[in-house]
Amino acid sequence: MALPAASAGADPGTAALLSIEAISLRFGGLKALSDVSFHVRNGELFSIIGPNGAGKTSMLNCISGRYTPSEGRVVFDGQDVTRLKPNRRAAIGIGRTFQNLALFSHMSVLDNIMVGRHHLLKNNFLTGALYWIGGAQKEELEHRRKVEEVIDFLDIQHVRKAAAGTLSYGLRKRVELARAVALEPKLILLDEPMAGMNLEEKEDMARYIVDLNEEWGMTIIMIEHDMGVVMDISHRVMVLDFGRKLVEGEPAEVLADPHVRKAYLGEDDLDEAAPAAMTA
């Protein structure tokens, strides 16, 4: 699969946009995450890999606010957001997609993407009346303009008026990405953005992700099982193992780790990922 090679990414001296500090997460007697720490620099494309049940999605849920960790802190852009609700985290610049599609099937593609901008509305209970008299139309036009930029970027102009539920799986994944991008996040969390896609769809999605990082300046944390994709486009990779951090580093370093090679990649994935990692 011909994928775009990762750029050098954020300078090692760049300050962390996100810091995960000794996060643990329990569900009754089950410990989903155990004392996990890492940071993501501003401008990085950072991937989290590991087997099913390793705690990858649980970590994204702690970052986005769906889960509150039992221990530890989540620090975003210098602010402790550990106890903030998901809508407050969205408002300060954390967007995400989901492993299972979370679109409004009966709504049009355009309306689904507009939902991603709801937190940017300026009116409130006290200023609403005056706002609607003077600024609503202007703001509506600006939101539409931003959404159209996202639609053009992701090449979904031809389905903009279609109901989301009528689209192919690959297009629905692209619409969900569009909704997250429309939020204009500083950090975007992608939970298996290429799951269930064919080869051509994966290549397209990989290019969109790289362009979001390099051209749109978005910092990205991605969960993805396709090791060829991960090793080609990531700046750094972290491996989780039963809720614990096993290893973290640049793709070639992670790929060379004997524990990772033996337990998590498998011979077939290694054959596909190694040449790409060596040339990245």
TrEMBL record:
Coiled-coil region(s): none
Pfam families in UniProt: ABC_tran, BCA_ABC_TP_C
Annotated SMART domains: AAA (SM00382)
Highest taxon of the lineage: Bacteria
GO cellular component terms, A-Z: plasma membrane
CDD domains: ABC_Mj1267_LivG_branched
This protein's UniProt keywords: ATP-binding, Nucleotide-binding, Transport
Domain ABC transporter: 18-267
MF term (GO), any: ATP hydrolysis activity
PANTHER family xrefs: ABC TRANSPORTER ATP-BINDING PROTEIN (PTHR45772:SF1), CONSERVED COMPONENT OF ABC TRANSPORTER FOR NATURAL AMINO ACIDS-RELATED (PTHR45772)
Protein name: ABC transporter related
Species in which this protein is naturally found: Xanthobacter autotrophicus (strain ATCC BAA-1158 / Py2)
